[in-house]
Amino acid sequence: MSFCIDLKGKNAVVTGGYSGIGLSVTKTLLAAGAKVAIIGKNYDKFSSIASELEKIKGNAGFSFYESDISDSGGISKTIANIILQDGKIDILVNNAGITKDAILIKMSDDDWNEVINVNLNGLFYIVKNVIKYMIKAKAGKIINISSVIGESGNAGQANYASAKAGIIAFTKSIAKEYASRNIYVNAIAPGFIGTNMTDKLNETVKDNIKKEIPLNRFGAPEDVSNAVLFLASNLSDYITGATIDVNGGMYMR
Ligand code: NAD
After folding, report:
1. How many structural domains are present in the chain?
2. Domain at 66, CATH number
3. Residue 63: other Cβ atoms inside 10 A
4. Pocket test residue of 27, 47, 98, 192 for ligand 1, highest count of atoms within 8 A of CB
């Protein structure tokens, strides 16, 4: 018996799939044989990594759609365009997200609204648009990137924690609504992963965080994309509505 995840013939969409965790997800899905459409706000960031993707794409292709996930109308058009180009979406990875940290008394309405708009509302707009095609196809794998902060809470991140906790509750609800249509909806809650998002932290803060992690180190983007690969494949066909923690033991439910 051998286990090799083969996603040949599958079409994936990855939001923010050109940096950090998202780039690792794009590379992993391409390496497994899937075709990947990246949705992101920044064409320049995409073009700076396009040659890297060329090297691993094999027979599968990749494409880029410039779109802000917090713009409901824009996302609706973008998903329609992807369907026009590729015909179907088998795998959706909702990875794009932002932080605007501040303690509550210093948190502006804009800090709050922007984080909820991108991290939670954006995910809702995309899933609502994509799921109608998955319903028609009677198949789909949706993977939502939440965060350990959505489970544990964190001082200075009430906006981010609320959005990421919302993603977990949304995941469970949509998993229940569409399980009968063969659509799987799961979340991943990464702990601290080495990317631009965590590079912003100073060394003292990083050292203090590591003390709270039983494995005593930050994770790598590949630790998250490996979990995405599992949830995108048929090896996870009895898992829906779950949240997989990829956090080095930092938070245990
Ligand atoms: P990152 O900043 O490299 O990635 C975020 C991506 O989202 C970027 O590509 C960015 O361009 C895109 N994006 C942001 N706003 C957007 C918008 N409005 N429309 C379209 N795209 C937009 O950071 P990352 O660490 O790779 O984060 C990826 C995901 O993982 C995020 O959802 C983040 O909350 C989550 N996460 C990260 C960590 C970590 O430690 N790095 C931990 C837990 C969860």
Report:
1. 1
2. 3.40.50.720
3. 15
4. 98
